[in-house]
Amino acid sequence: MAVHLLDIAELDESTILDIFKRADSLRLEPEAPLLAGKTCAIFFPEASIRTRLTFEKGIQLLGGRTILFPPEALDKEERLQDVMGYLENWADAAIVRHSKLDKLRELAAHARIPVINAMTAHNHPCEILADLYALRLRRPDYRDLTYTFVGPPGNIARTWMHVAEVLRLRFIHVCTPGHEMSTDNAHYRFSVSLEETLGESDVILTDSLPRPFREEVYLRDYCITPERMGLAKPGAVLNPCPPFRVGEEVSSSVIGSPYFVGYGFKRHLLEVQQAVLLHCLER
Question: Are 261 and 239 in contact (CB under 8 A)?
Answer without folding.
Answer: yes
